[in-house]
Amino acid sequence: MSHTLTAKEQSLAKIFSDDYVFTIPGYQRPYAWGREQAQELLDDLLGALAAAPAQLSEAAPYFLGSIVLIKGEASPEATVVDGQQRLTTLTLLLSAIRTTVGDVEVQKDITSCIYEKGSVVKGTQARYRLSLRDRDREFFRQNVQHEDGLQTLVQLITSLPDAQARLRSNAQVFIDRLAKLPQAELVRLVQFVITRCYLVTVATPDLDSAYRIFGVLNSRGLDLSATDILKAEIIGGIEPALRDAYTQKWEDEEEDLGRDEFGDLFSHIRMVFRKAKPQGTLLKEFKENVTPAQKPQQFVDEILLPMAQAFSELRDADYASQRHAEQVNEHLRWLNRLEFKDWVPPALTFFVRFRQQPEAVLSFFRDLERLGYSILARKAGVNERIERFSALTRAIEAGSDLSASSSPLQLSPEEQHQTYAALSGPLYETHSSRALALLLLRLDHLMSDGSASYQHEVVTVEHVMPQQPAPNSQWLTWVPDTAAHQHWVHRLGNLALLSRKKNSSASNRDFAWKKSSYFTKGGTSSFALTTQVLQHLDWTVEIMQERQETMLKTLETHWRLQDRKSKADLAEAMLAELGVVGNTAMFELESARHGLAAMAEENGDSFTVLANSQAKLAWTGQPHTYQQLREELCSTGALKLSEDGSHFIFAKDTNFKSPSAASATVLGRTDNGRNTWRLKGTSITYAAWQDNLPGSLPVTGCSEV
């Protein structure tokens, strides 16, 4: 077999002739061009036609891009590796011109470019210039390629699969635009398309070469997506006898999810395996981290299909089980409302493993909602989100106990404190309108006992007490103090939900008017939070405070924030615990700059640096008695040279009179050891530890105070 690669510039007259019989293989993606691409193609062609001279043979060639084919030199049969979108859309355009033009002879000529009719007398079958994938082939022939099909297609009102719906939509685009052209212009257009429009055909009889060309072209920005290239490589790597079956599996999932969501799924799968912030393209990182090409069947069966099924259930909040299904789906509905989707990779990882364990599923998604909304309330950045959810994915894969307080699924006491503090604060000022509305909707649903259903096209957050009350208004009678107004105006206790756009002119109206005409429709509100407001006759600080406490208590209970502790509280508790133990404690000193690490023990009589601790090789600071101490330790053998000669090592436990003497010996310069040494495993300094001890307990650091 010849392996010659050929590349030719050929007019569409040549492309749509007996020289080529194009077939879209089953492993190709569905037809994907939308109305925008179809409109752009026609606009470009009409623009080029308008600039062409009266004699079209003198017009400059108009290039439509390239197509990649698997094709032998002696045969017209051509498998399309890349270019099906152009070929399909050009065939659709020719069919639309044929439907719109009135000249019968022109219609016949166009038909000859689309397909060669069969002959009863000669006993021949119709020969189509382009055959789509098996799924869409007959639909395309009947509704696009045959003479009477296109008008039927645009009038179809039944639901169609994605690819066929796009064909119908694009046919309508073409017909609507072409119907506005004079008949002479239609004839001139089809002449221009057939005779002056060119494609570059890149053909090779070798499958592997065709895929290499395909990958190169698309890595340079042509219009196929990363999933299309991955599909070509993965399905192309499966033995030929199984390709059609695996193509069917792949495309069933792509069609069920929809093309955009299918692409999102691949991004989530990438994150499941990479577990870090993306640094390159999806295509590059998918190949580096997921490596489906090495085991294509295993990837489809064990990764893609289970993940796609899980993704569908998570996205649609459609978990089915005899136990806890509705509770799980409730958590999923609220997770899906989050603007960020970093929670999806660990959710997929968990769901494909434990889907059949409803108790575990409920516990996981209850806690995942808690974590997601805590991150929303705390306004955690993208890097923090990715790091946290990647850690959760690793924990799931490792089989860790996700209910443990140290699990990345759980909120630490400090995170609980930060979440509660954010919810207690002036949310209207600190959070985006979208995040604020979502937090209030979640709260509203909880306070309505789960009976509220949100189908509103618009949900906005409004102040009850205005941001700027009018002079002499009743608002100032209820809250006359400016400081009190500023404290409460943006907090939960003064916020309500509206199912309409905000009206700035209504914000300053009096309370009675806002209740009857602004917060309600027909005298009622669909939001529990707003209904609460309607029950009050006055709007005082006491009412806002009581309402705030109720709202916070609801969120505190639902998201389990009762164990919250601030950083100061945690440090105090730790110090208090250490203080009870006594004056013996372990300390550590690390210098990343010099690659040093040392351990020491304080026992009240001495500060002891432990054997195998490291020290800097040379003294680099100002002359000091600590320098003399180092030299003595070296001369006695207490400090010895490391094997590689890069630093000193303490040969034995060595006592010092103070933490500063010890840290100066380690660092090779004068140093305040009370700030350098830290309690082992904490960020608590020696000084902070010492300050917490009872005054009666002796410590070596006392001599430095």
Automatic annotation (TrEMBL):
Where does the DUF4357 domain start and stop, copy by copy?
A: 630-679
Q: Where is the GmrSD restriction endonucleases N-terminal domain?
A: 13-234
Record-linked InterPro entries:
DUF4357, GmrSD_C, GmrSD_N
Question: In terms of domain of life, where is this protein from?
Answer: Bacteria
Q: Which residues form the GmrSD restriction endonucleases C-terminal domain?
A: 421-553
Pfam families reported in the protein's UniProt record: DUF4357, GmrSD_C, GmrSD_N
Could you identify this protein by its name? Answer: DUF4357 domain-containing protein
